[in-house]
Amino acid sequence: MNGVSLGIRSGSYSSSDKKQQQSDVLLPIQTPSTTKTKPYSKMFKDKEKLFRWASKFAGRKRVRMSLLFAISAAVFVWVLYVGRDKDQETHNGLKVNDSLPLNNSETPPMNEVQTVGIIKRVSFPIDVERTEVRVMPPQPPSYFLGYTLPPGHPCNSFSLPPPPADKKRSGPRPCPVCYIPMKDAIALMPKIPSFSPVVKDLTYVYEENLNKETEFGGSDFGGYPTLKQRDDSYDIRESMNLHCGFVKGSKPGHGTGFDINDNDLVDMEQCRGVVVASAIFGAFDVIQQAKNISEYSKRTICFYMFVDEETEADLKANGGLDETRKIGVWRIVVVRNLPYTDGRRNGKIPKLLTHRLFPNARFSLWIDGKLELVVDPYQILERFLWRTNATFAISRHYKRFDVFDEAEANKAAGKYDNASIDFQVDFYKKEGLTPYSEAKLPITSDVPEGCVIIREHIPISNLFSCLWFNEVDRFTSRDQISFSTVRDKIAAKTGWMVNMLLDCERRNFVVQQYHKEVLALLAQMAPPVINPPTSSRSVVR
User: Fold this and answer.
1) Where does the record place the TOD1/MUCI70 glycosyltransferase-like domain (predicted)?
2) Which of 15, 160, 494, 504 has the fewest CB atoms in 10 Å of its CB?
3) Is residue 411 part of a domain?
4) pLDDT at 320
């Protein structure tokens, strides 16, 4: 394996909380002064003269009332002055307590009652009253917001080395990838889903009696949406109803075409975490066993291989398929009533509609039947989804990045009839498709290498998968041609982007094997084995 596995110290992903010293807030209480004052006889004599003089001009009763009023006013002013100072001290004290960090180990746990002192001006002298104040915990985030590796982590400074100077090998090759250790990748699996821009709820079209009045394209499996319905499906809204295969029957795989045994469907609905899916139709490939898969992944990840009846018969005869319905880590699921005569188009159903076959799964990894998985799925998900805060990842084509070039290459290789390819490209040109250029950056390619798809099952990525499948159902089965049109239409309305990893990074965790027919051809071309001649002389022991 060409991957670079680097460790992370335990607990380094959560922000460390710094302890703060919590100082008590002292709330001073005014107490009456106990200092004794000495009488001044002269002062009293002067006051007595003043009182006698005032009594001459007014009655004694009025004088007493005036003095009482003056004393009351003085006391009132003094109380206001002292009270203002106390209120300021009270305000400052509460502010200190409110600013204490909730994660401080010295503060009460969240959702518990914290007791604080509050000064209330109820009488003189001032009293202190104990009052309970509920400290509300911070609301947890509603969506997964991503993370960054801690400073100094080797993967932060990792960069691709220059390719080896091997002139004899100029084709595509794998390159190193910085994976984190398995246990850390498992610990970093998000507990909550990622954010889905704009669209929050998807429902799918169900038609028992199909309306086939459409301009062109469509099928009994995917329905016959009109061009107006197609345009409406790109008007991204919070709640949407759209075509997404399986338009007939009670649920996907049950009377819909691409039919699956009820027991298998029940087991598929139980997959609530990670799914690894693949398919072989027409006995076209040999099942490749995954390598470097941890025991934890074998217990917690659903590995499903979809096959048709022809492949099932071949596996029973040559591949060791028995009543356990398992070959290595792969659970073999036989699909009947395939909806298309084109095997490649049938393969797009489990590839693009994984979220419909596994309605309760959170993440999925699709790999073509000819590929051998050599890195643990949790490490792949961590590297290309969780660490980059992406919800859909696919590799770029190793050589081509322009749709027009891809179309010409498909025609030259006879991958589909030329007229259908030209019709599809011309249709996209009328909608605004242009050759790829640097003006599209940060988008780095319009052409994917679609043999591997890594995704999180949330509404926006499910919408992309549905609309991409609808293009494959309406036009040609060459999904590389329709990929950028669907991606760019959704991005224009939502800002959602696809993580397009390097082709050499994809080749790091899957190894491409030959199709079965190529293997048979190579076996025929191999030179015959010549055994060395044996000696005619007998040997007596």
Assistant:
1) 202-515
2) 15
3) yes
4) 84
DSSP-derived letter for residue 290 is P
- Which pLDDT does position 121 carry in this prediction? 34
Tens of pLDDT along 390-423?
999 999 999 999 999 999 999 999 999 999 999 9
Q: Distance between CA atoms of 532 and 402, rounded to whole angstroms?
A: 55
Categorize the per-residue pLDDT at 152 as very low, low, confident or very high, splitting at 50, 70 and 90: very high
Q: Can you give 469-531 as a three-state secondary structure string?
A: HHHHHHCCCCHHHHHHHHHHHHHHHHCCCCEEECHHHHHHHEEECCCHHHHHHHHHHCCCCCC
Residues 201-227, mean pLDDT to the nearest whole number: 93
Query: Is residue 269 within 8 Å of 360, Cβ to Cβ?
Result: yes
Domain hosting 248: range is 194-523
Does any domain span residue 52?
Answer: no
Please count the CA atoms within 13 angstroms of the CA of 279 that sit on its side-chain side: 24
Please check whether residue 346 lies inside any domain of the structure.
yes
Residue 236: closest CA among 500, 499, 498, 488: 488
> Residue 125, preceding bond cis, omega within 30 degrees?
yes
Quote the CA–CA distance of 404 and 481 in Å, as a whole number.
Answer: 8
- Angle at the Cα of 182 from the Cα atoms of 11 and 449, rounded to 5 degrees: 125
pTM for the full model? 0.73
- Record the tokens describing residue 79, joined without a space: 């109380």
Sign, Cα dihedral of 452, 178, 491, 439 = negative
Helices and strands, counts by H and E, the chain: 16, 17
Integer Cα distance of 462 and 354 in angstroms: 9
* Tokens found for residue 431: 């909608």
* Cα 196 to Cα 460: distance, rounded to the nearest angstrom: 5
What are 504's two structure tokens? 């050499």
Q: How far is CA 203 from the centre of its chain?
A: 21
Residue 11 per-residue DSSP state: T
pLDDT digits (tens, 9 = 90+) for 316-325: 998 789 989 9
- Domain annotation covers residue 224: yes
Does residue 189 contact residue 196 with C-beta atoms inside 8 Å? no
φ/ψ of 133, rounded to 5, equals -125, 125
Q: What distance in Å separates the CA atoms of residue 135 and residue 133, rounded to the nearest whole number?
A: 6
Total count of domains within the chain: 1
215: left (phi over 0), alpha (psi -120 to 50) or beta: alpha
